Amino acid sequence: MIYQKSIPGALVSLFLIFSLTACDSSSNESTDLAVSGKVTDGDGYGKSLQAPIDGAIVTAATVGANGSLNALEGTTTTDVNGSYSLDLDTSADVFVTMAETSSYSGSALVARADGSSSVQASPINTETTGEVSVYQEMRASGEAGSFVDVIAFVDKVVAADIAAEAGMAATFASAIAAGNEGEDEYMERDNIDRRDEKEDDREEREHAALVALQSSLSAAASSSAEATALEAFEEALIDASIEAGFSAQSEARARQASQSSVKNLVASGNLSAETEFSLNKRLAVMTALAVSKAVEASFEAAGASASRLAAIATAGEAWVSGTRSASVESEINSQHASYAASIDVELAAEINVASATIDAAKAATNTAKVALNASLAIAADAAAIADAHIAFYLAAEVAVSTALSSSSNATLGTDVIALLAI
Q: What's the average model confidence in pLDDT over 391-419?
């Protein structure tokens, strides 16, 4: 093997003051760095708390452009609680901590806040070790993506496959890259404003979310606290785009294209059934977060009442929560359908139409959906997938707008129904 998860808004904002762009570079002016962390025998976060590894030798390294490790000076040993403090002389924004005994080895990616002289690393376990492997492969192959993407999508199931099967890290790195390419291609075709300052702002916010996640995982005293931290991290990644100036609607549609790109790649059967489902569920969670925020934003922009907005937010939370707990693909689809049904009720009341009119508007998207699915089935790359999504929205919006011509706010209805159609 080559060596390399809603965080509360106030916490992310605090870290954001000190954050930097999400790349494996060395823009920090400070070089003295104290790293605190733990080494455990756990397989991942959020299920059962891990047991500590006593007496492990801990070192650190940066990840080169070819995926190789460049050792940093400094070494320490874990205590009986598996804890360590490691002093480094580095300006790196991102690096790897590694732990080893005669019978154990593990590693973790660590993000450092800009200008900081100390950092809390995520506890090392099988999951973090898998993340390092995927990140190294991503760097070595020049795949699109960052360490933030790796941590968002590698979980204990994926990490177990990486540990068991040679080449799995590279395959998963390609899957993550496909998602990024799908999102990028969609934004380009939808003429979304992607000025450098907006992209930089988003990356800074994502980096801040990761630094906050590390701190939360390090402090977690229970598996439920770990799970909460990971869920908050996922939400913070969606918020990062919106707070950086990308519209919630654009982010949601781009996430849908990203999800299609990954599914198109993994359909070839390169991943185990367990890993493919784990990845699909993570993608579904991120898409649900983005879409539910976009729906809420559309209702808010239309002047919906506070009580209606609260009901919409509650429905979105239930969708995301239900998707996270899904154990099979059909449950993911069921959660989406349940959310859409809840929104249909609120939409009919908001735009003053009968439920039958909403049903007719939804049915009007069927032709566009058939065309989308046909295009996705033969799409050769992320560009073709993005084109298919753009074509779907152009056709669906015309169809829905026509069906809702008698409503008091056809624009709101069109935005929401088209978005929830896929």
A: 97
For residue 282, give every residue at least 6 positions away whose Cβ sits within 8 Å of its Cβ, in sequence order, or none. 152, 153, 155
Burial class (CB in 10 A: 0-12, 13-18, 19+), 303: exposed
* Of 245, 58, 214, nearest in space to 147 by CA: 214
Q: What are phi and psi of 319, to 5 degrees?
A: -60, -50
- Supply φ then ψ for residue 62, to 5 degrees: -90, 165
Arithmetic mean of pLDDT, 63-75: 95
Question: What does the alpha-carbon distance between residue 217 and residue 99 come to, in Å, rounded to a whole number?
Answer: 18
Give the contacts of 248 (CB within 8 A, at least 6 positions apart): 242, 290, 293, 294, 296, 297, 298
DSSP assignment of 260-321? HHHHHHHTTS-S-HHHHHHHHHHHHHHHHHHHHHHHHHHHHHTT--HHHHHHHHHHHHHHHH
Dihedral angle over CA of 160, 164, 166, 171, nearest 10: -30
105-158 residue pLDDT tens: 999 999 999 889 999 999 999 999 999 999 999 999 887 678 899 999 999 999
- Which one, of 178, 109, 118, lies nearest residue 148 by Cα? 109
- Sorted by where each starts, the structural domains of the chain and their CATH numbers stand as 9-228 (2.60.40.10), 292-420 (no CATH)
Sequence letter at residue 49: L
Name the pairing type of β-strands 57-63 and 69-77. Answer: antiparallel
172: nearest Cα among 266, 289, 237: 266
Are 146 and 23 contacting, i.e. CB atoms less than 8 angstroms apart? yes
Strand partners, 38: 83
Residue pair 16/236 in contact by the 8 Å Cβ criterion: no
Phi, psi of 126 (to 5 degrees): -65, -35
d(CA 383, CA 264): 12
Q: In this structure, are residues 47 and 156 in contact, taking their beta carbons and an 8 Å threshold?
A: yes
Contact 101, 36 (CB under 8 A): no
Average pLDDT (40-67) is 89
Cβ–Cβ < 8 Å for 349, 308: yes
